[in-house]
Amino acid sequence: MNNFITMLYIIGLGVDPKNTAPAFIKRSCKICEKNYIDTYTTIIAAEYLEWIKKELNAIPANRETLEDVKNFVEEAKDKNVCLYVYGDPYIATTHQSLRIYAAERKIQVKTIYSSSFINAIFGETGLHIYKIGFVGSLIKGDINSRNYIYKQVGAALELKKHSVIIPTGYEGDLKSLISELKQAELNFKENTFADNRFLIFISRAGTDDEEIISGTIMELFKAKTAINEPFALIVPGLLHFSEEEVLKKVLNISVFQNIKPSTIEIRAQKVIDKCKLAISNAQTEGLTKKYKDIFENAILYIQDAEVAKQTGDLATALMQASYAEGLIDALRFLGENIKWE
């Protein structure tokens, strides 16, 4: 022990600890007086946890232990302390908090990296990792978490990027998870999680127990009810042909692409549809003849908006549609009751 400066070791065990744990664990087992396994930031399959506890003599470190940063890190002042992490260190911000506190107290930290679930799920599915648009956790029953996920995934889809969702608290219950996605869609109605949204679930990526399930939200809601923990949900964006080839030829997955229109495109279409209905209602009530010039201009604006939308000039489309809406709505000041629905 005298040959080593005491420090905190943060060691990744990879996605399949029995096979992917780094060779350094042989050394850490000898030099560390206290060994922990992080059971807070990720779900560890029971067989892996038992192996880690037995082979590495590691004590489970729960949320209370790891969030008590001061007491946890201070142990490394006079002894070598090891924190084993399933997957790769620093994917979880909790590990960075330990590292920062140690740096402030001049306590040395040695990090050993390993394979992470991010590497594994993108490698196994063939999706391009540089096309990640969002990674986040979905906490069961947490409305704020659900709403945040909905908006972030929606934004990523508009950019044609992939999203990775790490479900927490679902215990492999896909039906419950999908129900929450459907509820978010019901609330926001922005087509992020419409019934035809294509999803990929992957469980225990990179291990012998790996399982991949895919399909539309409606198909999955009706068909599959459970998957092994830990698992992740991928919401694919626009697929490159090479991504499609892996999904189809390697994984035998029938790919269904449905790209989410951008928020501005949705808004423009809503205004266009709203104005068309108002014009139709006004025509029925004889207002289009009474205010011929106004409605003719409104119709021209709508036509310009549709042309702009088709050419991808969405800002102009929304602007032109809004001009039409403003013209029609101004008739209120002349005492007219415009029916928008």
Name the CATH superfamily classification of the largest domain.
Tetrapyrrole methylase, C-terminal domain
The major pleated sheet works out as: 5 strands, parallel
Total number of beta strands: 10
3D shape: elongated
Distance between the termini: 79 Å
What is the structure about, briefly put?
This protein is of the alpha/beta class and 341 residues long. It has helices at 17-20, 25-31, 46-55, 63-67, 69-74, 93-104, 117-125, 143-158, 174-188, 217-223, 241-250, 263-284, 287-290, 292-310, 314-329; strands at residues 8-12, 34-38, 59-61, 81-85, 109-112, 132-139, 162-168, 198-203, 211-216, 231-235.
Task: Walk me through this protein's architecture.
With 341 residues, the chain is an alpha/beta fold. The protein has three domains: 8-115, Cobalt-precorrin-4 Transmethylase, domain 1, CATH 3.40.1010; 119-250, 2-Layer Sandwich (Methyltransferase, Cobalt-precorrin-4 Transmethylase, Domain 2), CATH 3.30.950.10; 263-334, AF1782-like (Substrate Binding Domain Of Dnak, Chain:A, Domain 2). It is 48% helix and 16% strand. The protein is built from 15 helices and ten strands. It has helices spanning 17-20, 25-31, 46-55, 63-67, 69-74, 93-104, 117-125, 143-158, 174-188, 217-223, 241-250, 263-284, 287-290, 292-310, 314-329; strands spanning 8-12, 34-38, 59-61, 81-85, 109-112, 132-139, 162-168, 198-203, 211-216, 231-235. Strands 3-2-4-1-5 form a five-stranded parallel β-sheet, sandwiched between helices. Helix 12 (263-284) packs antiparallel against helix 14. The mean pLDDT is 92.
